[in-house]
Amino acid sequence: MYSVEVSLGERSYPIHIGPGLIDDAELVRRCIPARQVMIVTNEVVAPLYLGRLERSLAADQQHSLVLPDGEKQKNLNTLSAIIDRLVAEGFRRDACLVALGGGVIGDITGFAAACYQRGIAFAQVPTTLLAQVDASVGGKTAVNHPQAKNMIGAFHQPIAVLADTGTLASLPEREFSAGLAEVVKHGLILDKSFLVWLEENMDAILDHDAAALAHIVGRSCEIKAAIVAEDELEQGRRALLNLGHTFGHALESLGAYRDWLHGEAVAAGIVMAAWTSKELGMIGAADCRRVEAVLSRARLPISPGTDVDADAMLRTMRLDKKAGAAGLRMIFLQRLGRAVVTAAPDAALLRQVIDARAAAHDSPGAARRTAAS
After folding, report:
1. Of 68, 69, 67, 40, which Cα lies nearest the Cα of 53?
2. Alpha-carbon distance 283 to 188, whole Å?
3. How far is it, in rounded angstroms, from Cα 65 to Cα 91?
4. Could you say which of 140, 170, 200 is where a domain stops?
5. What is the pLDDT of residues 271-290, one digit of tens each?
6. Which residues span the domain enclosing 185?
7. What per-residue confidence (pLDDT) applies to 325?
8. Is there a single domain that holds both residue 267 and residue 338?
């Protein structure tokens, strides 16, 4: 087991990484000591891991809530269903919610914990690569608004993260690749040596080599934990973690949260952010092609698709939660391994990049997304 700490004073918490953590009763009970516990999971994860986690817990009052799968469930109705169950079971303020699943489950469970009785504890047990390397760390919790992703939420830190890398073996290939978008992002924004390592070891990662998986989860958590400790509420440097997300969130929203997995949309968004960086004179075309190459090797889309409506994307991007009084802020690459937060460029430039990326590549993820939806 490998451990990373998110240093937030009295609210600091551990991230434990390794295979078999769900079955380690001593670890689970140490990290989740509450006497009232409710596990929130979904219909895909529950048959695989719910019983195992229940056996490892030692709560006097233990319940579970199994939700339908999918990003479309991340809404106020589902939030209300979780809170209704907490009220019905008489959960107190010293209770704990446990998120067992991917980013959707983690986000909505954390938000329910933040809202219930003005805040109760919750723990993250992420079972997807995307959740283990990104979504479970940092305390961002939210549900989606029909017009904008993650528009309704709160910062609420977990008490622990148990990233059982053994759960990654059950992930479909598409879900696994979606998580790699956030891994590549970490190298692009802060650690070029990690980016180079990813380029050199992508085959081992895709083969689910145990050492490679431990490294990408561990290094990603180290990078994110350091940023969160410095800027918990995203007033400055933490915004770097949103590279590609303004473009990507727009794609998700326009696809009604059905057509794109989050990581797929982020991958296409990272490519658009890279080429926008090139148009702004920050990086060269060779750097952009290198970004495309590593994402393609991870089996991720590098285009918004030929049917993208650039004007609709721009309208949706203006609703992004990172917009402030001074307008929309976006993240671009000063060089590979270093990103910067800056005011969004002119809409005409963004439209030009979106149209060019749509025309330059037939997105390799388009057929998969259509089949899945």
Report:
1. 40
2. 12
3. 14
4. 170
5. 999 999 999 999 999 999 99
6. 173-372
7. 55
8. yes
110 plus 231 within the same structural domain: no
Catalytic status, residue 118: yes
Q: Which of 149, 249, 299, 361 is catalytic?
A: 249
224 part of the active site: yes
Burial of 233 from C-beta contacts in 10 A (0-12 / 13-18 / 19+): exposed
More confident position, 178 or 360:
178
Q: Checking DSSP bridges between strand 121-126 and strand 96-101, what pairing results, if any?
A: parallel
Statement to judge: residues 313 and 239 lie in one domain: yes
C-alpha–C-alpha distance, residues 229 and 208, integer Å: 30
Q: Catalytic one among 242, 361, 368, 369?
A: 242
Structural tokens at position 235: 């007033």
Are 185 and 274 contained in the same domain?
yes
Which of 71, 175, 182, 264 is catalytic? The answer is 182
Does the structure show a pLDDT above 80 at 8? yes
Asked if residue 334 and residue 240 are part of one domain, the reply reads: yes
Supply the pTM of this predicted model: 0.90
Is 182 in the active site?
yes
Catalytic residue selected from 245, 357, 368, 369: 245
Q: Check if the beta carbon of residue 129 is closer than 8 Å to that of residue 106.
A: no
How far apart CA 221 and CA 195 sit, in angstroms, is 15
How far is 119 from 197, CA to CA, in rounded Å?
40
The number of domains in the chain is 2
* 82 shares a domain with 40: yes
Determine whether 371 is exposed, middle or buried from the number of CB atoms within 10 Å of its CB (0-12, 13-18, 19+). exposed
Q: Active-site residue 238, yes or no?
A: yes
Q: In this structure, what token pair is assigned to residue 321?
A: 């939660």
Contacts of 117 (CB under 8 A, 6+ apart): 92, 93
Q: Are residues 153 and 180 in the same domain?
A: no
Residue 140 is encoded by which pair of tokens? 């961002």
Q: Is 30 a catalytic residue?
A: no
Catalytic, 234? Answer: yes
